[in-house]
């Protein structure tokens, strides 16, 4: 009985607990990406009605959404940094296409005044914020998990009981020059 009490308070369950938190945090990132992908067809249809001349931008959004949703995502993506980067890059391309679409709305006053477009634009902005929060939570979960694998006593438990669990790759920006503030010109 004393051994069970001793082991229960020494962090023996931290590694699988943190591993599950990483998986759950990644699921939330995917959930937010899916929310965005579900909103885009509605946004595109609304914009088509008001800005048919911007077909190139709309086509770019549709293609980027298609590419972003065509990548098969499952739990194995977390263990494959290359697949994770490809997924992130496709999501970055979609974000870029959506930015161009928002710029289109600035050029067309009728589009800006349309309540449906404004509602969808607000939903997309909220979704982008949710994605950022989900990414932050994922980064924190990976940090905690990887730290547990590298520090005492987690390092001991990892080598004895959980040697099949590997450190997880963290989220990385895939958009070129993402570390620089964008220049806004009017």
Automatic annotation (TrEMBL):
<keyword id="KW-0812">Transmembrane</keyword>
<keyword id="KW-0472">Membrane</keyword>
<protein>
    <submittedName>
        <fullName>LemA family protein</fullName>
    </submittedName>
</protein>
<keyword id="KW-1133">Transmembrane helix</keyword>
<dbReference type="InterPro" id="IPR023353">
    <property type="entry name" value="LemA-like_dom_sf"/>
</dbReference>
<dbReference type="InterPro" id="IPR007156">
    <property type="entry name" value="MamQ_LemA"/>
</dbReference>
<dbReference type="Pfam" id="PF04011">
    <property type="entry name" value="LemA"/>
</dbReference>
<comment type="similarity">
    <text>Belongs to the LemA family.</text>
</comment>
């Amino acid at each position: 009985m004393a051994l069970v009490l001793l082991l229960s308070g020494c962090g023996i369950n931290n590694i699988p607990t943190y591993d599950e938190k990483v998986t759950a945090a990644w699921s939330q990132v995917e959930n937010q990406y899916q929310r965005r992908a579900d909103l885009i067809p509605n946004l595109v249809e609304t914009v088509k009605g008001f800005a048919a001349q911007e077909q190139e931008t709309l086509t770019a959004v549709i293609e980027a959404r298609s590419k972003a949703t065509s990548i098969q995502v499952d739990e194995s993506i977390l263990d494959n940094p290359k697949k994770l980067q490809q997924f992130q890059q496709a999501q970055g391309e979609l974000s870029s296409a959506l930015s161009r679409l928002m710029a289109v709305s600035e050029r067309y006053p009728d589009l800006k005044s349309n309540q449906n477009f404004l509602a969808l634009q607000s939903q997309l902005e909220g979704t982008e914020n949710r994605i950022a929060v989900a990414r932050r939570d994922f980064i924190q979960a990976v940090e905690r998990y990887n730290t547990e694998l590298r520090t005492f006593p987690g390092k001991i438990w990892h080598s004895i009981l959980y040697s099949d669990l590997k450190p997880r790759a963290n989220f990385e920006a895939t958009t070129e020059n993402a570390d620089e503030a964008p220049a806004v010109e009017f």
